[in-house]
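Appendix B, record 7
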Amino acid sequence: MKWITRERPKIDRLACPWLIKNFIDAKAEFLFVPAGTVLKKSKVEKAIPFDIPGVEYTHYNEAVTFDYFLKKHNLTEPALHKMATIIRGADTDRHNMAPEVAGLWAISAGLSYNIKDDYKLLEFGFILYDALYSWAKHLTTATHLEGSPFEKMLHEVYTRFLKNKKGKTPDWVKELKHLLQDHVDTQFSMDLRQISEELNLNAAYLSREFPKYFNNQNFGEYIRRKRIEQAISFISKPEYSLTEIAYLTGFSDQSHFTRVFKQYTGQNPSAYRKKLLKSKNHSK
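Structure tokens (predicted):
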């Protein structure tokens, strides 16, 4: 059977082929095509489309396509459902769903950045999800420092040292805050590597140090919060549609905007706007 989806897979569109190949259709073939051609190509190739709007195998509410495959094919193995939580969190920017979510997002983003050939990327994706499956099935209680008292002691000493260490905020932090605000205000896309080059800092160092000075948020979380804060300022102005607000605040589409907005405010943008406008009318 052939399966077809959008090009440039990153998380769900790598996880689903791995699941199909290992638990649903061992002889499966996968096609990656431009987003606007998936349905047309699926008819020509007689392939099943997945992870695009309007088809059976796709996102439903808070669930991602990987979740639907599990449900549709009655896959109940606990390790797969452990993986599903991590995949769902990484694919929908909900990094609080499991400790492993941020790691999966980081590795997936790095693979996509380094590998431009989708089929080569799929090969590496299979290795990645083989490893995640083995961890979910056999290693969830293991730790890196297990069985090594000396390493564990060093780790505890280092952790205490960091907690007790107090120093001056580096100069780059203030400069970075201004730089990020400029990027948000102008809707420029932001890349941690590009930002690190502008600040003349090592990208790995910046990624590691970032949460210390930005409310314990990683780079992506901080940017999403700033965009939502900007969106709230637009929502108070009725002349902007929600689609326009999603565009003006740098979201790829309204669906992604709605998901992230609800994550940070507890309400979807439409309900938030109605409540806000109602409150303003009552105060007059």
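Remarks on this record: Residues 77 and 137 are 9 Å apart (CA to CA). Strands lie at 2-6, 29-33, 47-49.
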